[in-house]
Amino acid sequence: MTANSFVGRLFQLKKPRLGESPAKNQRSGKMLHFLLEEYRERTFACPTSGAVPMTELGSPKIRDQIQLPPRNVRHVRVRMHHTDLVGAVYHGAYFDLFEDARTEVFRALGYTYRDCVEAEGRLMIIVRAACDYKRPARMDDELAIAIQVDLLTRVRLGFAYQVSLADNGESVALGLQVFAFLDTRTNRATSVPPRLAALIRKTPEFGLHPNGR
Question: Which of 11, 69, 100, 179 has a Cα-to-Cα distance from 1 of 20 to 30 A?
C-alpha cells in the first residue's frame, strides 16, 4: 500500500458522528484501526530494534544501497551523568559504556543476559578489566563503541572495546574485559555458555581468530 492509496482509503471512511448509531460508529472505528495496522505492517518490514523502514515508495535497488552499521558497533551520545566536574566523560563511566554496548550488541543478535542466566544456567563473572584513555570525550559527543572478541576458550571469554568519535573516527579509549562463568545451580566455575560461544564464532564482525586467540 502506497502512502497515497492509504490516505485515499482513509478519507473514504465516515467520521463517527454524534447521533449516529453506536454500531455504525463502531464499524468506522474498526476499519480505521485495520487500515492503520495494515499500513504500519507494510511500511516497517522489520519492526525490530535497528530495522530499516522499507516502504513501497523506495525501490529494492535503493534499499540494497543502504549501508547498515557493523553488527558489533553500538552508538551512544554522551550525557551529563557520564561526565565529571571538568566536563569530560568520567574514567569509570567507560566500563558502564562497555557493558551497555556489549549487552545491546548481543541483544540485537538474539542473545540476552536472561538467556545466559535462565536458559544456559551461567552467571558472568568479570576477572579482569582495563582501559587506556586516548583523549577526552565531552558532553553531547556521539561515540561509536566497537566490540571484538579476542579470547574464547572453554572457560574464559574476553572482549576488546574501541571507543571513537562517531563523526571523525578519532580514538577515545581502548578497553578490555575478561569473564569467567559460574553454574547457577552449584555456584562453581563452569564453561562458556555453548549458545553464546556458537553465536560469537558465526559472527565475523567479532574478529575471533580460529583458535580463539
Answer: 69
* Full domain range(s) for residue 58: 3-64
Give the other-Cβ count within 10 Å of 169's Cβ.
8
Query: pLDDT (tens digit, 9 = 90+) per residue, 41-72?
Result: 544 444 444 444 433 334 445 445 556 678 99
The pTM is what?
Answer: 0.68
Residue 209 has a pLDDT of 74
**212 within a domain of the structure (yes/no):** no
Three-state DSSP class for 85? Answer: coil
Domain boundary among 64, 82, 105: 64
Q: Rounded to whole angstroms, how far apart are CA atoms 192 and 190?
A: 7
152-187 pLDDT per residue, tens: 999 999 999 999 999 999 999 999 999 999 999 999
Write the CB contacts of 5 (distance below 8 Å, at least 6 apart in sequence): none
Residues 77 and 53 occupy one common structural domain: no
Gap between the Cα atoms of 190 and 198, Å rounded: 16
Q: In this structure, are residues 93 and 163 in contact, taking their beta carbons and an 8 Å threshold?
A: no
What type of residue sits at position 185? R
Same domain, 166 and 197: yes
What are 120's three cell numbers?
544456559
Based on the structure, what is the number of domains in the chain?
Answer: 2
